[in-house]
Amino acid sequence: MLDVRKIAEGIVAREGGFVDDPDDPGGVTKHGVTIHTLRRLGLDLDGDGDVDVSDLRALGRDRAVDIFLTDYFHKPGIARLPELLQPSVFDMYVNVGANAVKILQRLLRQMGHDVAVDGIIGPQTADAAQAAVRAAPGHLADAYGIARRNYYFRLADARPASRKYARTRSGGKGGWIKRAETFIAPRYHLSDAEFRERVAKWD
Questions:
Q1: Residue 114: band (very low, low, confident or very high) from pLDDT cuts 50, 70, 90
Q2: From the centroid of its chain, how far is CA 56?
Q3: pLDDT greater than 90 at residue 25
Q4: How do the domains of the chain map onto residue ranges?
């Protein structure tokens, strides 16, 4: 049985600690939780009457895991998806919100399923995902992971400031690409040469 808490703990580990990167559209984060999320939840962790960066600094790993489980797994309805998809969609939802579901919905449409691309996991999306798994057992998770990787590449194509998340300074795979490939079978990982060819136009 899927251990969702362990998945959330893995996400927190990948996200790292306190990060204040001016190139990150999500703003200041700690353990992957943004200041915007903390304010939306009204988490005044230091009890001073407001929610600001000092509250984010006070955020512990266990609280971050709880936030992800409640707001990024249960609320969006990721549990309605096939188990083999849940880890990757959950991880992507933490990273890009409802766009994680839209990526899946576009993939399902490409596979011939009539689903709306609205970022909501309703009965239509859940049923289509279950049908896709029945039709091609073992392939949907890889297809979704590859679609994630392509999404990251497109973001970096369009926004030069984001390229550092997809490619390291030394020219290798950056965090975004490694993150997507965590959920893809090794045979579908890009080789170093394939990766360099894909990002060559960024130079």
A1: very high
A2: 20
A3: no
A4: 1-75, 81-203
